[in-house]
Amino acid sequence: MIKNVVFDIGNVLVDFNWLGVMRGLSFTDDEIRKAAGLIIGTKYWDNLDAGIMPEQEAVDIMKGLLPEIADKLQAFWEHLEETIQVYPYSDGWLKGLQERGYKTFLLSNYPKTLFQKNEKDQFTFLPYTDGRIISSYVQKLKPNADIYNCLLETYGLKAEETVFIDDKKVNVEGAEAVGIRAILFDNFENVNAKLEEMLAEK
After folding, report:
1. Burial of residue 41, with CB atoms counted within 10 A of its CB: 0-12 exposed, 13-18 middle, 19 or more buried
2. The pTM is what?
3. Taken in order 56, 62, 63, 64, is the CA torsion positive or negative?
4. Which residue of 72, 83, 112, 136 is most buried, as measured by CB atoms within 10 A?
5. What gap in Å lies between CA 160 and CA 5, rounded to an integer?
C-alpha cells in the first residue's frame, strides 16, 4: 500500500523555461545553441546540482569558454530564477494528496542558490510537502542510490510504501533499483491516472 508520494521538481511541478529567458535576453539562435550545449545537462550544471562548485565559479568557467557572449551568460544567471514557473496543477495536486492522508515529499537535483530563490518567491506548493531532499544540500545526485536511500532514512519511509514521480527515465530506474515504485512523468493527466491506480491498490 502506497503511503508516500515523492516528486521531482523540474518538469514535474515547475516548468524550466531557460529557452524563453535566453530569448528575452536577446540571445540569437546560434548563441542559444552554444549556451545550451555548455549549460543545460552538462558537468557544470551537475556540479551545481551536487553542491560541489560555487555558482559564480561555474559561471566564470562558462564565460571563459564562450567569451563572445560572456555578458549574456552572466545576465542569464542573474535572471535564472525567472526560468522557473509553477504549473497550474501543482499546488492542488500535493494539497489534495495530503488531505487524503498521504505524505508528500520532494526529491530533486537542484542548484542551491536557485533553490533558495525559488523557495522564497515561487514554490507555492511547499506548504503541501512533508519533507524534501535537494541534491545540492546533501551532495548526492539522482540517479545514484544514495540519494534515494537518504530520503528513506531521513524520513523513516519504507521503499515499498513509496512512489516516486520523475520526468527522466534514468531517475525512475534509480528509484526502482532501491525498491521504490516509480512513474515516468509525461503529462499531468496520464501520471495522475497512473498514480491513482497505485493508490487504489490494497
Report:
1. exposed
2. 0.93
3. positive
4. 136
5. 11
Please say whether the beta carbons of 52 and 138 come within 8 A. Answer: no
Contact 46, 141 (CB under 8 A): yes
Q: Which secondary-structure segment (H or E) carries 108?
A: strand 103-108
- Which region, left, alpha or beta, applies to residue 73 given φ > 0 means left and ψ of -120 to 50 means alpha? alpha
- Reported as a single tens digit per residue, the pLDDT across 42-53 is 888 889 999 998
* C-beta separation of 1 from 67 below 8 A: no
Is residue 104 helix, strand or coil? strand
User: What is the rounded distance in angstroms from the CA atom of residue 59 to the CA atom of residue 61?
Assistant: 5
How far is residue 91 from each of residues 22, 119, 133, 172, measured CA to CA in Å?
27, 14, 19, 22
Strand pairing partners for 162? 4
pLDDT in tens, 127-156: 999 999 999 999 999 999 999 999 999 999
What's the rounded Cα separation, in Å, for the pair 21 and 79?
A: 8
C-alpha cell of 178?
A: 532501491
